[in-house]
Amino acid sequence: MNMKTAEDGIIRTAKALSDRTRVRILREISKRKRMTCGEIEAIAGLAQPTVSHHLKILTEAGLLDMEKDGRHVIFSVNHGALKAFTRLLGKTVRP
Question: How many other β-carbons are positioned within 10 Å of the β-carbon of residue 49?
Fold first, then answer.
């Protein structure tokens, strides 16, 4: 992977993780394995548009997977993306 692409990936993921609410959402989805937007709204205590905004950022960063189930969208954590991020960061920032 070339450095520009690696740096872009690190920056995109780091930006997604730089918000306390998004980290909390990611943690809750990870604990429960799968959650709908409505369930996330309830645990986050935020309005639907705000939750959708956070979910969009996490999904675009590759940290969440989403699947349609009828009228519902179900989110799950992409653990492979988290592992790849930490591995990439470790290779890029060495002591």
Answer: 8
CATH for 33: 1.10.10.10
Give the range of the structural domain holding residue 37, as residue numbers without chain letter: 3-92
Q: Per residue in 50-90, pLDDT tens?
A: 999 999 999 999 999 999 988 889 999 999 998 988 888 88
- For residue 75 the two structure tokens come to 């989110």
Given a contact cutoff of 8 angstroms between Cβ atoms, the answer to whether 67 and 24 are in contact is no
Task: Give the total number of structural domains in the chain.
Answer: 1
CA proximity to 25, closest of 4, 2, 44, 48 = 44
- For the segment 26-46, what is each residue's pLDDT rounded down to a tens digit? 999 999 999 998 899 998 889
**What CA–CA distances, in Å, run from 14 to 41, 43, 47?**
23, 23, 24
Which pTM value belongs to this model? 0.84
- Structure-block tokens of residue 43: 């645990």
